[in-house]
Every structure is written in structure tokens, then in C-alpha cells.
Amino acid sequence: MNNLFGLRKYIIAGIFAVTCFAFVFRLFYMQIIDDQYKLDASNETFRHVTQYPPRGCIKDRNGKLLVTNEAAYDLMVIPNQVKDFDTNSFCSDLNITKTDFITNIKKAIILNTSSHASVFMKEVTPEIYAAFQEKMYKYHGFYSEVRTVRKYPLNIAPHLLGYLGEVSKELCERNPKYREGDYVGMSGIEESYENDLAGVKGVRITVVDAMNKEVGDYKNGKYDTLPEPGENLTCTLDATLQAYGEQLMKNKAGSIVAIEPSTGEILALVSSPEYDPNLLVGNIRAKNYASLALDTLDIPLFNRALMAMYPPGSTFKPIEALIGQQEGVLTENTVYSCAGCYPGGKPKCDAKHGSLSLEPAIAKSCNTYFSYVFMSIMGNRKYATMEDELEAWRKDVMSFGLGTRLDIDLPSALRGNVPTVEHYNHVFGEGHWRPFTIISLGIGQGEMEVTPLQLANEAATIANRGFFYMPHVIKSVGEKNEIQKKYTTRHYTTVDPKYFDVVVQGMSDVVSDGTAAASKIQGVTMCGKTGTAQNPNGRDNSLFIAFAPMDHPKIAVCVVIERGGWGADWAAPIASLMIEKYITDTIKRKDIETRMLDGNTIHYLEEEKLQPKHNNTQHTAHKK
């Protein structure tokens, strides 16, 4: 029994000895051998400095830099390390007020407690930082982190390129790669390609002396991680064409969208009024953004090319002509007579065109003719009911990309509207509407709404004789000369290619001797279609779609000038100048160019802003 008791005593003593040895060894390992524990234990000696990667640059299709980077500095603070110093001198060195100083310190404490680093002042300019850096040793608890900010060398395409903004608290919680104070793409390419452009942050661990000066890297950078730069992007944009389009749109509200039909690549995307993209860079961003956001007259942050919706007006007539042929109720030889309006008085036409076949009806943009076409589609006997007829027509229209969101690689593109049977049943009551009730759809009015991007895509689809590639703005990411498969896939309409020839010829006649004859280009066969769409709150909108050359087209364009009046007045000349510039690289029609560059349609808005607004009038007459 005594032997058993003695054995148990030795076992317990042995366990106790082993446990003590393990604790001692662990403490020795942590304090002497493993440096990592030193890093976690001291904020006084070591400083973890975030290494921000350079964000990927963006260049145009010809290699011109659209977006690049320049250095900026975030001034960081660890509140519980801040010691007494001359606050007035500190504020003077940074060109801030004492109120700013107090506010920023309090914010740092609230966000990250007194013992953790927070951003005290964002994106200090290199000029201010250069002078401040020499005096930083006087200000304990402060240090800097280098980051890059965006720079726009050509000062163009703000709505396409987009801008950066500070990450939200919710995003930080969802994605650990971000922390408060980081910036992400908030619109345009910057938002769509955030994951490619952003890169990966690194960390540098430095040793700091008692004078708040960095004396070197800890363990020669053994525990540092290098940042990984973001990928560079090649954009489909033609910078020269984009800049020219922006000049033409000065003092005008509206947009230009130009597409290469053979690829779906966006050559130009202009939304006007616009803004200087450099206004949303650096520590002036917040103030300038607020100013732009509060501009409710010009709405410069609004991307009209993707988000503004208008009745297409007569630019829709080529689609109507194609659907009529496909449905078997129209041929190129079908003749209707125009006496100035459709029987019953509406829709009206701007002239009494007399008897017309399809091709001259397109060239002269006859409302009466295309009202007959729509009524014949809606009276097609191969469908059992009127509702079936409308759904079949709607399906054909949507195959051209109208009424659906085009899957462009930019955020916020809208789908427009091609009205449904359910809509009319809701508005008029089931069984209480007829084809004549909705006849204005045949001439692109009524409830139909489209975006400029969709109209440009319509032009590209007709240029290709029945198919389109999904519009996109990026040609390649990084060194890989590849794009997503969805941007190399053809999307076919429901219309047989054989029906496009007469429509293309009619659109050529529009420019040669029709409603846009004043915008013809010497040596270039341009096909186009004018549109003058009613605006319930003021002067009519001027629209034009076009492509050129007629065979093997290189460019398709849509121009919308809000309150511009007739399509031939503003939209057609601007579109023709864009085409001339792109195809010939020169402008010979200096008189037209001067008139468009000097023209001002914004004043129409100034005249109308005090007038009472009216609700949208449905199924109304239409001009060319």
C-alpha cells in the first residue's frame, strides 16, 4: 500500500514538472525565438503600414492612356500615442483648421479605439506632404501610408470610366479584403471591373524610434507582404472620337453612342451635360460630388446613354418595316396612300405624301404608311386573338434588343419598355382596347421607351442585316487578349435576313434625298433614320440613328438631343460628323461642324423650367 502511495506521488510530481517545463519553454519560445509574438505585443515599437497596390490603368483601343495613377498620402493616427504638441503649427502645416483636427481625432477614436491606427486625413497631396514629412517627428502618434489616386490625362468619358468612392461599412463586413477608408469603383468601368483593377494590398512592418521616426524594416522585411498591382485594361473606346463627340455635345443635353457593328465594341459613349472626372479625385472628392449631385437642372452625374429613356419616334420605323415583312403582311411593293393622317385623324403626318411603297415611305418617314403597317400586323389572321398578335409583335421587337437590358459590361443600363397585354388590360380593362387604341406604337410613340444604347444597337443590327453582338467596353484584361464569350456570340433577330435589303436601301435614301439629306457625307454612303419624339414637358427630342458605309459598315451611331426639335436639325448633323470623323479622320463640312460646335439647346430647358409640367400623353401624333 505504501509503495502504491509513493508511486502516485512521483507520477503527480512528474506531471507537475512536465507542465511547468512546457510553460517555461513556451514563454521562452514566444519571447526569444518567435519574433511574430513581439509584433503582436507592441504598438509602440513596431508599425504595420498598409502597402496599397497601384490600381490598374485603362487605355483606349489605340493605346492612349485614359486613366492612370499618381501618388497621394493618407495621414494615419494612433490616438493613445499622441503626445502634447503645437496644434496650431500642426494645423498650419496641413492647411486645416483646429476644428478639423478635433473632429478627425474624435472620429479615429470612435472608429477604431484609441490604440489602433485610423485615417486622420485622406489623400494629402504630394506638395503638402513633402513639407509636412520633414516635421512629422514632432508629432508622435502620426505616420503616413502611401496610396495612389486616379488621374485622367485626357479628361474624357467620365460616365464610361466611372469614379471611386469610399467603401461602406456593410461591404467591409461582407468582404474582409476591404477596411474602412479603402476605395472601390462606384460607377462605370471602375465598378464593373473592380476585382481586376483593385489588386491586392500588402503590409510593411517598420521599427519606430522614440522620436516617431522610422528607423528601418523589421527583420529586413522578413514578415512583409508585397502588394499585387491591379490588372491594366484595354478599352474599346476610340479616344479621339470620344473627345470629338464631347465637343459636339457642349451646351446640349442628350447622348451619343457609337458601336462597331462587326464586334459590338463601343467606340464612343457620350452623356451630356458631363463633368470633369478629375473633380472626383483626392480630398476634394466629397465636396465636388455633393455639388454635382445637387445640380438638378443639368444632372451631370446621370448617364443618359444607358439610363435615359425616350420614345424612339420614327427611328423605330425600320424595325416596323422588318416585322411587317416577316409577318407576311408587307412587301417592298405594298402601297398605301397618305392624305396627311391615318383615317380617323390620328396619327397625323407632316405632309400629304400620296401613294407610297415601302422604300420611299422610309425615306420620307410617313406616319400614315407605318400606321397602316402596324394595323395590318395587328390584323394578321394567323393569330387567334388580338392579344396573341400583340405578343407576337412584342417578341419580334424585343429580338432587336428593345425592352430588355442589353448585357453591356457597365452598371445601370436600363431595359426601356415595350408594353405588354397585361399593361393594356390594366389601363383600359380586359377586352376594352383595340389595335387602333395603341396605333401610336407603330410609329415609335405611346408607351414605348428606349435608351440611346438600344437605338445604337438597333442601327448595328440593321447594319449586320439581322444580328448583333452584345455591346461592350473592354477589349482585354491584363496581358490576356481575351474577352468574355458572351461578347463574341451573335444574337439573331426573328426577322429573315432577306427582308433587310429594302430597309437598308430606304435608310440610304433618307440621307441621299430624304429627311436627312442635309447631313450627307461626300464619298461615304451613310444609311440613317431621323426621329422627332414628343416630349411631354417641352420641345420635342431630336433623334437619329445611322451606320456607314452601307456595305461592310464600320460604325453605327445613335444621337439624342433633348429638346432639339426635328431629328434633322441637331441629331442627324452630329451623327454624320461623328461618322465622317471616324471613317475619314477629317472633317470637310466645316460649316456644319461650326454650327454644331457653337449650337446651344440647353437654353430651351432654361425657357421651359418655369413652365408647368404635364403628364405624358399617350398615343399622340408624331413628327419626323
Considering the chains and any ligands shown, give keywords for the structure.
624 residues, alpha+beta, 35% helix, disordered C terminus
Entry summary:
This protein is of the alpha+beta class. The protein has 22 helices and 20 strands. Strands 2, 3, 4, 5, 10 and 16 form a six-stranded mixed sheet that branches. A five-stranded antiparallel sheet has the order 12-11-20-19-18, with helices on both faces.
Q: What percentage of residues falls in helices of 4 or more residues?
A: 25-40%
Quaternary organisation of the protein chains: single chain
Number of helices: 22
What's the count of strands? Answer: 20
Instruction: Note the gap between the termini.
Output: 116 Å
Task: From the alpha carbons, calculate the radius of gyration and give it in angstroms.
Answer: 33 Å
Low-confidence stretches: 39-44, 612-624
Strand content: 15-25%
Structural class, judged by helices and strands?
alpha+beta
The largest pleated sheet is described as: 6 strands, mixed
Mean pLDDT, nearest integer?
Answer: 88
Label the overall shape.
elongated
Question: Can you give a write-up of this model?
Answer:
The chain is of the alpha+beta class. The chain is built from 22 helices and 20 strands. The strands form six sheets. Strands 2, 3, 4, 5, 10 and 16 form a six-stranded mixed sheet that branches. It has a five-stranded antiparallel sheet with strand order 12-11-20-19-18, sandwiched between helices. Residues 39-44 and 612-624 have low confidence and may be disordered.
Please describe the topology of this protein.
Elements (H helix, E strand, L loop, with lengths): L1 H32 L2 H6 L4 E6 L6 E2 L5 E13 L9 H8 L3 H15 L5 E7 L1 H8 L8 E10 L6 H4 L2 E3 L2 H6 L8 E3 L2 H5 L1 H4 L4 E7 L5 E4 L15 E3 L3 H10 L5 E7 L4 E8 L12 H9 L10 H4 L9 H10 L9 E3 L15 E3 L1 H7 L2 H12 L7 H13 L22 H8 L23 H12 L3 E3 L4 E4 L12 E3 L7 H14 L13 E9 L2 E11 L6 E7 L9 H14 L5 H9 L3 H7 L16
Helix pairs in contact: 10-20, 13-15, 14-19
